[in-house]
Amino acid sequence: xxxxxxxxxxxxxxxxxxxxxxxxxxxxxxxxxxxxxxxxxxxxxxxxxxxxxxxxxxxxxxxxxxxxxxxxxxxxxxxxxxxxxxxxxxxxxxxxxxxxxxxxxxxxxxxxxxxxxxxxxxxxxxxxxxxxxxxxxxxxxxxxxxxxxxxxxxxxxxxxxxxxxxxxxxxxxxxxxxxxxxxxxxxxxxxxxxxxxxxxxxxxxxxxxxxxxxxxxxxxxxxxxxxxxxxxxxxxxxxxxxxxxxxxxxxxxxxxxxxxxxxxxxxxxxxxxxxxxxxxxxxxxxxxxxxxxxxxxxxxxxxxxxxxxxxxxxxxxxxxxxxxxxxxxxxxxxxxxxxxxxxxxxxxxxxxxxxxxxxxxxxxxxxx
Amino acid sequence: xxxxxxxxxxxxxxxxxxxxxxxxxxxxxxxxxxxxxxxxxxxxxxxxxxxxxxxxxxxxxxxxxxxxxxxxxxxxxxxxxxxxxxxxxxxxxxxxxxxxxxxxxxxxxxxxxxxxxxxxxxxxxxxxxxxxxxxxxxxxxxxxxxxxxxxxxxxxxxxxxxxxxxxxxxxxxxxxxxxxxxxxxxxxxxxxxxxxxxxxxxxxxxxxxxxxxxxxxxxxxxxxxxxxxxxxxxxxxxxxxxxxxxxxxxxxxxxxxxxxxxxxxxxxxxxxxxxxxxxxxxxxxxxxxxxxxxxxxxxxxxxxxxxxxxxxxxxxxxxxxxxxxxxxxxxxxxxxxxxxxxxxxxxxxxxxxxxxxxxxxxxxxxxx
Lengths: 368, 368
What we know:
By secondary structure, chain A is of the alpha+beta class.
């Protein structure tokens, strides 16, 4: 793996040359993991354009030994006091005046501390998304990890569906889901598991409560696992009991929207086009004079990788064009406050000439 | 509970008057939960100084229904496009030119978006830590919740210790710990559980791996639960087998340091004094000509509450003076790279005339 990290750092150094930056400050844990393998959650990484100089990681005493074990070819610098004054001091003492930073990964207060510590020794330049841009194009080794994470999530989804019996509580299902993930080797959940029974399924982000499952209820399960650092994210909606034709109709509409959006995923398509594919299908289904798209209150999906939400965003009007290596979720849904909601989500990888659905769980309407 | 939230908002309004701010922008989820009860993870809260105006929460379609259910007396504003341009537009359209923001809770990019959207309609003022300052002084209802979270963590620690048999893997123990938390009603772990066997215990932040427990090994378990929104955080170090007198000596030194630091916790003492109490004890224990404080590579503790790390920091030189309602961890440790480490951590509440240890698990040296 150390070759992988060193290779990525060399790619980034080439980008720094293009951007005419001497050094890049990396302040986001997923970015520094991607470039070095360091899994600690406090620190800052400095990449110099000059190949000889390589990389330096400033971190505190808790992480120094760990950083030494986890990285190769990275200089580990133990901070004395607070992090950002120490990073500023390190930058001021080094060579290379033009330093880039990601304005989306640094707070206003941290930025002030850096400016104060470096004074005129550093000219700061906004250089957002350089690492995020690399991370968007997954390498084969990353796609292999994401396939495994997606399959694991699918197995857990199927195990969770088998638990859905009237009387069970939402948090019992959530606890079992996260336990099953770990039993299968996941380091943890990629996000807090969503378990929503009945009318709570109308809340797109309903975290598990003590609510008990009753008969004739929608159930939304939205879960993801982290396996070997990579995230998966899957949603299925089940019905416990016998569904009305109205609920069946909603489910069909969402499934059709999801199928259309997955079909729209291809190298060269824009994220906005993928989002529109889902939205247009829902608009064609009517309820009380409105298109169902009115009840689709979020975007169609998001990038997935080391983080559960990363670039690209699959939302209305997004111009970013998909390219091989992108992995995104496709997750349209409809939500009727006080009644219930339906969402279906899969993880999709973009290849040169085909689209690969990583999650493998039946999407058929299922009554339990 | 809604009275609690409204009461806090009124307290904050009084602070805004003192700070001569017309409005305060709140961009941190734990802060907006504290003031409104909203548990969603995307949005921004605006508190106006004028009592009549109250509070407004800008959020996206995923969270609008949920925000309506969870809050009372808060105007919910659904954003059209991206969050910060929408927040800027909302602020520009409202009254009250002097708007405060927390520079530690806003990225440079978000700040730029706000400046762009508000133009000259808003004069921005850094007003960091207003809500964090309130959150540091726990109310009785919060202390009651934290006691329960701490007791729960203690029960889980004792259950985990019973699992420590040669052959078990670190991640199996971690999975069981998190499962036991949820079975006891926790909404989840407050942080990724640390399980470190043998020489891995020398890494203060060792996340669980596939490593199996062998006989004659140190075991560090560091876990915390979130119960009714409040966090706990506890560490115990066990020995599986028969410990050498050297290991016993280290354990005694850490326990003595922790005891001294807990004794130093009182209303009126500074956080730096508490940190020094632990460090001085370790300095009095020698190894190869050095004080053991050389192997204590992190700070003594941190504030605890809605978040697992919050104000105050209990670190070298911190001048913040403890006052009733503060809840902090006390967690000295020593770490010998390649050999092993020992840490003992408890959660402590500061009262007017006494100190309350919230976590209740034996700290005696325990061989399993």
